[in-house]
Amino acid sequence: MSQRTRWLLLLVLPALFWAGNALIARASVGQIPPVALNFWRWAVALLLLLPFTGGDLWRHRAVLLARWPHLIAQGLVSVTAYNALLYLALQTTTAINATLVGSSLPLMVLVLGRFWLDEPIRPRAVAGIVVSAAGLVVVVSKGAPAQLLELGLARGDGVMLLATLSWALYSVMLKRYPMPVPSYTLLTALMIVGVAAILPFYLWELAAGAVLDPSPRNLAVIAYTALFASLAAYYFWNKGVVIVGAATAGQYTYLIPLFAAILAVLLLDEEFHAFHGLGAALIFGGIALAGRGPATRPGGAASRA
């Protein structure tokens, strides 16, 4: 088996780990406060990674400090905002809905790239955006778009849209303000910014009475998010992007809602409805339509934090 073939298979792992992240966050509603989960996920991951990257972080300190506004902005919208919003969304929506809404990321990146990077959007891409937007409406309205006008957007789905927008901002920032440092060095720096920014919100959550019970189950959840959804997923994703290319690797992100749906039905007794299937077909169809052609989507190689 060639190295490329092996990594084409291994790229399934990040999608599975990120789907599992949504699944266990949904399963932990009422047991682990969302901000606490976000804080301890990244605090543990940082403690595990820092011994290996601390020296490199120090060697690149001049580069990082020279770009501190961009570093802080990227840390806030990725480690801090995206994950906190994801876990908040899963308090009131299903893992299936959340990951399907999150699959709109490539289209958000496409639109932001047009206005921020001045990258043109081809007519085919406009059609793709319209088709995917229709799929999102189907999912968030549970197959009844007319009722959406009367009842409004469900809270969890709305928060997930904000989370996806946050990650789209980060994806475009990676191209707009690149950091000339090794990927794990950048990840460590983003973790430091993110954990520092999360801390005040975590303390506020504690003051409000939402205390994390350090049960074996809850500690196992935090361990999974730190080890698999963060460090392992990032390793396999970045290595895979280098070997098979960003465009090919990007296609694997479409497996996240598929894995989430399968696992949620099997383990959480969530129901997969016809509107989920229709919405997914429209979202992915729109993304495929928008992605055809020579142009490259910005942020294609950005991993999910």
Task: Detail the topology: elements first, then pairings.
Blueprint: H1 3-10, H2 12-27, H3 34-59, H4 61-66, H5 68-89, H6 95-102, H7 105-116, H8 123-140, H9 145-151, H10 155-176, H11 183-207, H12 216-244, H13 246-251, H14 255-267, H15 274-291
Helix pairs in contact: 1-12, 2-12, 2-14, 3-5, 3-11, 3-12, 5-10, 5-11, 6-10, 6-14, 7-10, 8-15
Description of the molecule:
- The protein is mostly helical and 305 residues long.
- The protein has one domain (3-291).
- 77% of the residues lie in helices and 0% in strands.
- The chain contains 15 helices and no strands.
- It has helices at 3-10, 12-27, 34-59, 61-66, 68-89, 95-102, 105-116, 123-140, 145-151, 155-176, 183-207, 216-244, 246-251, 255-267, 274-291.
The helix/strand order is: HHHHHHHHHHHHHHH
Number of strands: 0
| Approximate helicity band | over 70%
**What is the distance, rounded to the nearest whole angstrom, between the alpha carbons of the first and last residues?**
30 Å
Q: Which shape, going by the Cα principal axes?
A: globular
In the predicted model, the low-confidence regions spanning at least 5 consecutive residues are: 293-301
> Structural class per helix/strand content?
mainly alpha
Please tally the helical runs, counting DSSP H or I stretches of 4 or more residues.
15
Multimer state: single chain
Q: How many structural units, i.e. domains? A: 1
Gyration radius, in Å: 19 Å
Average pLDDT confidence is 85
Describe the sheet with the most strands.
none
Percent of sequence in beta strands: under 5%
Summary tags:
305 residues, mainly alpha, 15 helices, globular
